[in-house]
Amino acid sequence: MAIPGNFLSPTAETIDPNTSGWAAKLNCTIGMGVGGRTGGGGCLSVKSIAAGEMQARTVSSYPVTAGTVYYAFADAAGVSTERIGIRWLSATGAEVAVSWSLTTLTASANWHRVSLAAVAPAGATQAQVLLSSTEAGATVNHYWENVYLGLPIRTVGNLLPFNTESSELDASGWTTVVNATISRQVPVINWSVTNYVAGGHTLAMTAVAAGNASILAVDRPTVTPGREYLAYAYLQPPVVTAQAWIELRFYDSLGNQVQATRSTLAPPTPATGMYRQRVSAAAPANAATCSVAAGLDGASAGQVLRLETIAIMAAPELQAGTVLPYADGSFEQGVAGWTVASGVAAIARSSPWGDAAIDGSYSMRVSSSTATTSVLRSVRVPVTAGVNWRAQIHAGADVLTWTSVTVRVRWYDAANTDLGASTGTAYALPTTSWYALASDAVAPAAAAQAAVEVVVVASAPASELFVDKVALWQVLPLTDVTANSDGGYATLTLRELPVDGEVTVYRVAQDGTRTLVRGAGGLIDRQALTSDLLVVEDHEAPMGVPVYYWIEVYDVGGSRSTRSSSTITLTLDVNEAWLKDPGNPQRNVKVLVQTAPDWQRSIEQSKHVVRGRRNAVVLSGKRQGLEGELSVWTRSDDERRALHQLFDSGSTLLWQAAPGMGVADMYVSVGQITEGRVSRLAQEVWRAWSLPMTEQDMPVTVGVSGAAGRTWQDVLVEFATWNDLMSTYATWEDVFLDRRG
């Protein structure tokens, strides 16, 4: 799959099937290498002609705008250090300047990432990617693949700007707090080939003297009091004895720090890699902004802590609708509000990093010194009385000496009076694998709060159990569908889906005909699931016809289960019709029909007169689809502008009319349009449109364009003024889709 937003062609990006996207620039020849990472098996081999620096460049030059930040990265492997550059060219192809990344600290024959971000200088209108390494002799190969050039790629939803997240431009997004200096370094790190937000440059904090050292992000994004936020960073600590940590800090409107929540890394031994450490907290009542800090406790002079991919965002839900805080469900910074209500069990965060986890990198380790029963209880959270709630934990036994694990809910009223616990569900853990253990209960009439309880029964001393990804949520229908006739679409909501599984969604007509429903990646056919909740807006559902949805769900192991929705019907006035763009439903327009088309169906024929025969011989091809001219009215300037926007792309459209009009839903291509006035009065806003249409096949590869979680905060962190925004985007739709001109 191509890197989203890449200016380079797939061939230049992946070096498959050939090297046609690349050319030698300095002291080298290029060829096709083997053992690439992107699936095609090929990579770019750059071979030195003589000792010294060698450079390869892209054959093509790509349009850029002076003053705009651009980003380039590649994966490399070789026997020497390397760097990557962006070569800026003028309109005539003359070199304006070259921006280079820092050189990697060491060489590595394993794939690792190099990258840089740079501002296009004045006079630059085009850019090329440069790949550089300095070899000790002739005929030495250096290998490259997975090459990107384009706009910065940042974590969606991150409240911090790109440079603070990545340090790809410089280290200006950070300041020292105590006993530290700040720089950038490019260590050898083997990121996943599809981890596009991870670059080569890391932020490096160096302890000036022995003792504690720390740094702080300069940015102060705004927060909403009471809302839970998550901060994380990849940390590479110097040694185990120096304790690395990150902190989520909140500030009031005057800039005074009002809360700090720390999460300490428990690295494996030896600690040689990058480890993502998370911290979460709810913004206090007087919080206005936030930031993230990082540091080392007990550092030696000269020790370095490296950071990469640093983010602050709204805390995710471990299960859609869960009311438990992230810290109490994922145990990334400790056991949070969990306590041992009774029994001898001890609870603590698992250690080291990555030892046992379902979500994140840690879990809660439960240990029992004797063969007895213990009760573990979470923090209390608000609930609604009279409705069904589901408590769920993920558990795995480290030592197989647990008789049972029971999951239940304990209820409390508003005055904190204990109303007792639900019956719960007891489970036996047959192996050391992880299991999802759930229990349902209806909250009693007086209930205002609840806590998840886990009753563990150890059958032998020294028993150990891991608990992770705990959630408590109101049970809602697994499948829900609503008709939005005013908008011309149906909304399908699927809950409690298997994360990392797959799903297929069909729309089923009255006659049983099944049609795949369109999603962000095209038709939803074995689509990978990244969340337990999936909401689909079906803008191609027919008008005035009952339909329902058939869903096939595949878990991680490939096992299949099915669901179906209730039946819904979208309504439409008989005098109106919808014109829709399947890939961009925000452009859909409902219009008033003036005249339906008189259809024609063309056919390719050749007529041959045979001497001596009465009838000519006619050779025919297959008769083509419908062609005709639809006449519609727009009734306002807004409708008129919307219709122009719909036609601008030239995409295949969907025409839908009410049932009984003698026209089925049809995908069409619209030819040269005519917009006419309906009277001589200049102020008249009605327009008469003539739309020549040709029937088309349903577009099967087109996905629904969307913001993928993009919010106004994402816009705010990147653009200081409205002028900056207006010079980057042509329309508000482009802002929404982050489609830059």
Walkthrough of the structure:
6% of the residues lie in helices and 46% in strands. By secondary structure, the chain is mainly β. Strands 22, 25, 26, 28, 29, 30 and 32 form a seven-stranded antiparallel sheet that branches. Strands 1, 4, 5, 7, 8 and 10 form a six-stranded antiparallel sheet that branches. It has a six-stranded antiparallel barrel with strand order 44-45-49-53-51-50.
Compose a concise summary of this entry:
The chain has 741 residues and is mainly beta.
Q: Could you estimate the helical fraction of the residues in percent? A: under 10%
The largest pleated sheet is described as:
7 strands, antiparallel
Q: How far from one another are the termini? A: 23 Å
- Report the mean per-residue pLDDT as an integer: 93
Class by alpha and beta content: mainly beta
Q: Count the helices. How many?
A: 7
Strand-residue fraction? over 45%
In terms of per-residue confidence, which ranges show pLDDT below 50 for 5 or more consecutive residues? none
